[in-house]
Amino acid sequence: MASVSSLPAPALQASKAALSAALAENEKEAEKKTNGDESLEPGEIQEVDMQAQADTIRTVFSDPTNFNVKHPLYSPWTLWFDSPATKGRNLPQTPMSSFPQTPVPATPGGIAAQGWMEDIKKVITFDSVEEFWGLYNNIVPPSALPQKANYYLFKEGIIPAWEDEANKNGGKWSIQLPRDKNRAVVDKMWLYTMLAAIGETFDPLLTNGEGGEAPQSLITGVIVSTRPQFYRISIWTRSAPTLAGGEDDKLRERIESIGRHFKTNVLGYQEAQRLAGALATEVEFLSHKDSEKKGKQAKKIIV
Ligand code: MGP
To answer: Among the atoms of ligand 1, which is closest to the Cα of residue 162?
Structure first.
């Protein structure tokens, strides 16, 4: 596992955001305990053995195997997986194929996506920084996956399908990278994409908003796909601008800033850098409705 202190700035920032949510939660708990301790007389100060307390706290960063403190994420996330080996009922033993058949939820979206979801297996749901690292340390990285495999990391309760209520009006930012030239970097790119997702750093309205109720995150999930000739990393959003202007301008701005953050802070490219070439695409946005209309003229946003 990469230790957090060795992460480059963007990943560290994402990890910190995940941690700051955890710390805020811990502070609330501590306050509750202090205010709620009825055994103390008014004005009496509780004695705390700080050293003993510090000695018993083992975070994942100080002790990666025997930590005893967990830092909750903003929300729980579920990892899903498919590959040629997960197709069909009798799954051969591969690193990821020991997962039970996952019933598709009986929501309208779940029912509509039943065919698509048949081969996609639920791996695990986690809700803390520590569980994320535990999972990350124990799964095969994208560079070592077979061709035609996908990891889907989605918020708990959202299935990785266009048909899900949370996705049906949305779209995706994606980049396609030639396999040969990017084998050495794809694992880090995917790690930083996951960190930005679980740390909620993609959506500026959530991370820059001061005071008031935070708006709902536009991000529903992130995907890495391995294909014979290329890798693809995608970020799915709840909404997609229609490109008609007017009312949609604010949404378009918000979507574009997610794309720019993805391109520069997460993937590490310069904003003005052009990336398209043989087997490579720009960082581009397409609504799911346009993805479904295969072959027709698609309206892409490019950053
Ligand atoms: P893909 O795997 O996202 O694209 O979708 P790729 O990698 O270009 O194609 P591949 O053949 O190399 O895997 C492939 C096809 O899967 C789409 O054209 C759809 O037919 C189907 N599909 C993809 N997604 C994300 C969905 C979905 O969410 N719901 C349904 N019903 N079908 C989907």
So the answer is: 28
